[in-house]
Amino acid sequence: xxxxxxxxxxxxxxxxxxxxxxxxxxxxxxxxxxxxxxxxxxxxxxxxxxxxxxxxxxxxxxxxxxxxxxxxxxxxxxxxxxxxxxxxxxxxxxxxxxxxxxxxxxxxxxxxxxxxxxxxxxxxxxxxxxxxxxxxxxxxxxxxxxxxxxxxxxxxxxxxxxxxxxxxxxxxxxxxxx
Amino acid sequence: xxxxxxxxxxxxxxxxxxxxxxxxxxxxxxxxxxxxxxxxxxxxxxxxxxxxxxxxxxxxxxxxxxxxxxxxxxxxxxxxxxxxxxxxxxxxxxxxxxxxxx
Lengths: 178, 102
Fold this sequence. Notes:
Number of strands of chain B: 0
Largest interface: A-B, 86 and 72 residues
Shape of chain B: elongated
Mean pLDDT of chain A: 87
Low-confidence stretches of chain B: none
Distance between the termini of chain A: 58 Å
Oligomer: heterodimer
Largest sheet of chain B: none
Number of helices of chain A: 8
Number of strands of chain A: 0
Radius of gyration of chain A: 23 Å
Strand content of chain A: under 5%
Number of helices of chain B: 3
Helix content of chain B: over 70%
């Protein structure tokens, strides 16, 4: 099982690197699905089958599909890919990447030098998760319900098409405003 | 016996988080920035799951479910903003919306 875990971790890291270096958005999204699936494999091996199923259903199944739908509605063409290529060809990515990598190396060194903490290796059943969620963390569930409601209202309000005022006198000022 | 240690899990989560962070800094396309934020939240959730697995407690998984909820709400609002940006400026470049004149 340990070998499978490391294989899944390598696939996750590789496909995540591919996500941030693609120029085509759809390719990046497909790599993102691969990354999420391998993360789900890691969850399953470490002993969290319920969360592995949720990762596949909600992240890979709902959130990424939402991205795909929005890209379908935007109808991006070849020019967008060319523009991405032009932006990525510059050297602006070197300095932030090096700084972030230095921080990452420090983090890895600190965690590596710490005493080894073995995981329990026990699979935690959905029954335990549900019981704890609706007793100890009940207030969190209520708050996330409120957050989702705010998300629905915000998305509806923002994505609504503004009513376009077409009037022969107002047309010019509207054009100038853009 | 399970040989996967919490240290390994935290290192993997850190690597994924920093990849997402680099992506957030080097891309100018708004959809890629949202994707990078997703990667970062996923990495944080991974760290929670590993920490929960260390003590065989369900708390880490519950925190991951909350992170999932937050990611869903954030993505729905963020994608609505992307559509508004594209309708207004006909580009996904975040620099186009840098001057907030309404």
